[in-house]
Amino acid sequence: MANPIHPGVRVGHVHLKVADLQRALDFYCGVLGFELTQYYGDQAAFVSAGGYHHHIGLNTWESKGGPPPPLGTTGLYHVAILYPTRAALADALQRLIAAGIPLHGASDHGVSEALYLSDPDGNGIELYCDRPETEWPRDADGGLAMITRRLDLDELLRTQEPL
């Protein structure tokens, strides 16, 4: 690549179209534990972790009462939410279990461990934590050799500790 992007660039937030703002807030704040930072009128809200202005925007501007996008169409595959520790990911799993939110999958990718689910509007959600880079699987040439194996959820829950 002749002119790569600055290495400090990060995805700052994602903004999702939802059918019901309160239902979305009940999920993102009530189940996952994000904090509401601001309502934007009565059609949008912003939520964050750790006091950031917002990690996720939610709006009904073009989607109030609308159905989820049909399968087989283009659009967002999932939003990946990075947890700082394995124990924090275990806490997220416990929150999902307590709320009766089903998982679509749970994978060990070698570089990370991930839980897959949908929000109430059918948006794909990945909750994950990274392994230290020194533990990432590598091929013979030193390149990444990511994998997909079943994640042991019972073992993950045993790592849960108070935050």
Structural features, described:
It is a single chain. By secondary structure, the chain is α+β, with helices and mostly antiparallel strands. Helix content is 18%, strand content 27%. Strands 5-8-7-6-9 form a five-stranded mixed sheet. Strand 6 and strand 7 form a beta hairpin.
Q: What topology emerges from the helices and strands here?
A:
Elements lengths: L13 E4 L3 H11 L3 E6 L3 E5 L7 E4 L19 E5 L2 H14 L5 E4 L3 E7 L5 E7 L18 E2 L2 H5 L6
Parallel strand pairs: 1-4, 5-8
Antiparallel strand pairs: 2-3, 3-4, 6-7, 6-9, 7-8
Structural class: alpha+beta
Provide the succession of SSEs: EHEEEEHEEEEH
Helix content: 10-25%
Mean pLDDT: 94
* Total of DSSP H or I helical runs spanning 4+ residues: 3
Shape: globular
As a percent range, the share of strand residues is 25-35%
Count the beta strands.
9
Low-pLDDT ranges: none
Rg for CA atoms? 17 Å
Instruction: Order the strands across the largest sheet as they lie in space.
Output: 5-8-7-6-9
- End-to-end Cα distance, whole Å, is 41 Å
The biggest sheet amounts to:
5 strands, mixed
